[in-house]
Design goal:
Length: 134
Amino acid sequence: MAYDDRAVAMAARMLAPKPRGKGQVVTLLQPGVGGTFDPATDATTGGSAPIEHQGSGVEEAYSSSSIDGRQIQAGDIKFMLSPEKLDGAAMPQPLADTWTLQKSDGEWSIKKVDRVAPAGLAAMYVLQLRRMGA
């Protein structure tokens, strides 16, 4: 097994849902495609349904010194997303400002995505999450 394979496997084990790992189960929502946007209602109608990716990960609070009020706001959280879905398939890399993450306490918008790939393969995705409507 190559170094990059071991790094991915180790990250997936650590971020797996409890009791096997330290993570929680989440749903990554990839927006559907197509449809028509109506600016009057601020809604899109038609098109395909969002694609759900079942995964897991661990959340962490930002330190008070990291919160600048612009890039990182009070209430934002850092979330380490596993590189593997619960079914063992590869987790797609989320896109900031379009994909969302559902966890036990509600739906969160993804503000920033950092891909951690020490040897080329994604070992985890570090997401900056902001509560929807905040």
